[in-house]
Amino acid sequence: MKVNRTSALAALWGFAEATVFFIVPDVLLTWIALQNRKRAFVACVWTLGGALLGGTILWFIGNNDPDQARALFSSLPAIDNGMIANVRLQVESDGLIALFVGPFIGTPYKLYALEAGNLEVGLVAFLLISIPARMMRFAFAVLFASAISHVLRKRFQLSAVRVMHVVAWIVFYTGYFLVMSQ
Q1: Kind and range of the H or E element at 123?
Q2: Can you give the pTM of this predicted structure?
Q3: pLDDT reading at 1 higher than 60
Q4: What is the mean pLDDT of the chain?
Q5: Calpha distance 135→80 (Å, rounded)
Q6: Cβ within 8 Å of residue 136, ≥6 positions away
Q7: With bands split at pLDDT 50, 70 and 90, how would you rate the model's confidence at 104?
Q8: Is residue 79 within 8 Å of residue 87, measured between CB atoms?
Q9: Where are the alpha helices (DSSP H) in 1-118?
Q10: SS3 string of 25-56?
Q11: Is the model's pLDDT at 42 over the cut of 90?
Q12: How far is the CA of 46 from the CAs of 40, 59, 107, 110, 182, in angstroms?
């Protein structure tokens, strides 16, 4: 697999979002999917690699001293102490299956990584379940964006579809931050 700028950016974004960044890599993946689904799936693999590295670091932090990370995370947009406590309860009660639900309800992966380490869930098990849990959402986003792009590009040029993409993500995040901050 050749490392190009897109792959490197995808890996970096996956790592950043798995640690402290608060905009999902789906933004980049869906952007790529507007024009080339195959390239978007390659970017998914790189994003996953970055996310697993970030998740590993947070697992170790959670396993050793999670309080500073919890304080940092609670200062990020759309994350509060209640969400962090809820993730801890989810991991306690549901185990690693919680990783499949969180990404689809707006709960950041970083919180699951931190609490999995804190609750002494095995690192290998955490990483193995992270692969399908993360990839499922990334692939869904790519397939959705690719399908929408295919339909829209019958009526609009790629540049117009890209503007629609940007507007859609701005609308999404505006709503997300408004809902999650209440």
Answers
A1: helix 123-152
A2: 0.94
A3: no
A4: 95
A5: 26
A6: 100, 103
A7: confident
A8: no
A9: 5-19, 26-33, 37-64, 67-74, 81-94, 98-101, 109-118
A10: CHHHHHHHHCCCHHHHHHHHHHHHHHHHHHHH
A11: yes
A12: 10, 20, 21, 17, 34
